[in-house]
């Protein structure tokens, strides 16, 4: 194994972009479901107080007594926070609005940046044999997101194919550099994925050209098209792979999953 921080075979990927509404949660849910379709075991950590990933996977508000908040701040064991979803081999640690106070509570904690890192490295984790853990981050570069970047092996950035898409990316890259310098020297960039791509729209194509010119290889070949089935799926508590397996959106997320998995098979010698 080339990455010494990977003590068991689990790859931890933080899905990050400090802008809201760019497709972080949608990508987390559907990439996870597509990885499962490729035979992997996947855990989602909902790290956004809005809890959209939890809702989108059908975790009822009443079933969210033990959440990411308790995992990070109350040292609760993984067994008590990990929940099954309706998809076999897809699990989630849900979140509620309680997590919004975590950012401030973390400030007072000496290990504030390392709490999620340590929580995910409980010895219990080995027993679960997850292939991937995807962390759905809040729309901010706050301490929660820093916790995700410290806990993760890599960062995956959804980039909305819209005006001003690349704006804010330099701030994100600076934060990644800071995390590397202070807490997680091996943090990599998994890749940038264009979301809500509309081939008929010149703007989408311009964003793609700019992204590929400026960011090069780290931009995934797969683009996620704007597709109504993708936006409908969460209200049925399903991934788009379950909701409409033949839709353009489901096909795109399967293609993204294959790209990510293939990339990791190449690097993990
Ligand atoms: P974030 O987590 O970054 O805030 P979301 O994943 O919640 O973003 O997406 C924002 C909105 O865009 C949601 O309403 C979602 O349903 C919609 N959306 C995301 N991706 C697509 C897509 N490929 N096609 C159509 N709608 C999408
Ligand atoms: Mg979200």
Short description:
By secondary structure, the protein is α/β, with parallel strands linked by helices. Helix content is 41%, strand content 17%.
Detailed description of the structure:
- The protein has 269 residues and is α/β, with parallel strands linked by helices.
- The protein has helices spanning 24-37, 52-56, 68-73, 78-81, 102-107, 115-120, 125-128, 143-151, 169-182, 202-215, 228-232, 240-243, 248-267; strands at 11-15, 42-46, 83-84, 90-93, 132-136, 154-160, 188-197, 219-225.
- The chain has one domain: Rossmann fold, CATH 3.40.50.300.
- Helix content is 41%, strand content 17%.
- Strands 3-4-2-5-1-6-7-8 form an eight-stranded mixed beta sheet, sandwiched between helices.
- α1 packs across α13 (248-267).
- The longest helix is centred in the last third of the chain and has 20 residues, at 248-267.
- The model is unreliable at 1-8 (pLDDT under 50).
- The structure holds adenosine-5'-diphosphate and magnesium ion (MG).
- Residues 20-26, 52, 139, 195-196, 224, 226-227, 230-231, 249 line the site of adenosine-5'-diphosphate (ADP).
């Amino acid at each position: 194994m080339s990455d010494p921080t990977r003590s068991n075979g689990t790859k931890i990927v933080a899905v990050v972009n400090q802008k809201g509404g760019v497709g972080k949660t949608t990508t987390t849910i559907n990439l996870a479901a597509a990885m499962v379709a490729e035979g992997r075991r996947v855990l989602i950590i909902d790290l956004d107080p809005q809890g959209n990933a939890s809702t989108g996977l059908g975790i009822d508000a009443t079933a969210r007594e033990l959440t990411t908040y308790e995992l990070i701040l109350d040292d609760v064991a993984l067994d008590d926070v990990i929940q099954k979803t309706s998809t076999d081999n897809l699990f989630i640690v849900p979140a509620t609005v309680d997590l919004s106070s975590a950012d401030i509570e973390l400030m007072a904690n000496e290990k504030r940046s390392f709490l999620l890192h340590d929580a995910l490295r409980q010895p219990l984790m080995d027993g679960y044999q997850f292939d991937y853990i995807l962390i759905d981050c809040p729309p901010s570069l706050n301490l929660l997101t820093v916790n995700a970047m410290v806990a993760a092996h890599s960062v995956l950035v959804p980039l909305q194919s819209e005006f001003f898409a690349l704006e804010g990316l330099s701030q994100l890259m600076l934060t990644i550099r800071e995390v590397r310098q202070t807490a997680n020297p091996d943090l990599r960039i998994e890749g940038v994925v264009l979301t809500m791509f509309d081939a008929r729209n010149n703007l989408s194509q311009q964003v793609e050209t700019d992204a590929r010119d400026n960011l090069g290889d780290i931009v995934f070949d797969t683009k996620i098209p704007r597709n109504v089935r993708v936006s409908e799926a969460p209200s049925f508590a399903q991934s788009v792979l379950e909701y409409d397996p033949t839709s353009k959106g489901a096909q795109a997320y399967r293609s993204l999953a294959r790209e990510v998995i293939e990339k990791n098979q190449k690097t993990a010698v």
